[in-house]
Design brief:
Layout: H1 2-16, E1 18-20, E2 27-29, H2 34-54, H3 62-82, E3 92-96, E4 103-106, E5 110-114, H4 115-120, H5 125-140, H6 143-154, H7 160-165, H8 172-179, H9 186-202, H10 208-218, H11 227-230, H12 238-256
Parallel strand pairs: 3-5
Antiparallel strand pairs: 1-2, 4-5
Helix pairs in contact: 2-8, 3-5, 5-9, 5-10, 6-8, 9-12, 10-12
Length: 257
């Protein structure tokens, strides 16, 4: 009986929670508000960085930190032009000293990139910009809220009433953390590829680097997919689709250089 009530509640909320994304126009199912998503993500981000610091995993490489910040600052500026609400986000980027090939951006602009992906793939500035542009695009497009909504559903509708009513944001902090491990949909990945490459081009980064990046990623598995690909599905036609976007993005890039 309880399970039936939970499912019924989720379906009822879902029917009223379908929203049109202001950037892509795609309909999205979201069970949490932008305010809730950003608040819970900030909590999860602070906890992630605190744990990394305790383990000595926050990068102390001043040159690398400066390099990443210089790149992301340019992307952030253009994100504000593509999605005006992001201008008020409390952006932050961390470099985590771990060998994993990964990067992410939470709702509200809380970002991280791992040293493994930079060093193992010998990334250029243009390629780092493609990674972070892709991740920032996920945040601009509200994909984090979609994943959090899926995480809530996976938890069996836990405290759904409080979440929807906005009374208990604390229960969303672990959901925001769980959401980082959930894959985006194929549609979400295509959107992030499309808007991420444009974001990087607007910031003056070579769009051709997107193709080089994913070629490196696809060959980096050594028998198994990198963590970055485990949470970012890479369809067979991804490189082909990016190649098709490059001619459209080159004039934007040339103008921004």
């Amino acid at each position: 009986m309880k399970r039936t009530l939970v499912v019924t509640a989720l379906l009822a909320v879902g029917l009223t929670a379908c929203q049109e994304n202001p950037v892509s126009g795609r309909k999205q199912l979201v069970l949490v508000s932008e305010e809730q998503a950003q608040s819970s993500s900030a909590q999860a981000y602070a906890q992630t960085l605190n744990e990394a610091q305790k383990k000595g995993k926050l990068s102390t490489d001043a040159a690398l930190n400066s390099r990443v910040k210089r790149i992301t600052d340019r992307l952030i500026a253009q994100a504000g032009n593509m999605y005006a609400p992001s201008r008020s986000w409390n952006w932050s980027v961390a470099v985590i000293d771990e060998p994993t090939l990964n990067a992410w951006c939470m709702p509200g602009g809380k970002m991280a990139i791992y040293t493994g992906i930079i060093h193992k793939l010998k990334l250029s500035d243009d390629e780092i910009a493609q990674i972070m542009g892709h991740e920032i695009a996920h945040a601009m497009l509200g994909h984090g809220r979609e994943r959090m909504s899926r995480a809530i559903a996976m938890q069996g509708g836990m405290t759904l009433g409080s979440i929807v009513a906005g009374r208990d944001l604390s229960v969303l902090a672990p959901v925001a953390d769980i959401a980082l491990t959930l894959p985006n949909s194929r549609a979400g990945e295509s959107e992030a590829d499309r808007y991420g490459i444009e974001l990087a081009a607007r910031a003056g980064f070579d769009p051709r680097a997107a193709v080089r990046l994913w070629e490196k990623m696809s060959s980096a598995g050594n028998g198994g997919p990198p963590q970055f690909l485990s949470t970012h599905p890479s369809p067979d036609n991804r490189i082909q689709a990016l190649n098709a976007l490059v001619p459209q993005m080159m004039p934007i890039y040339e103008k921004a250089r």
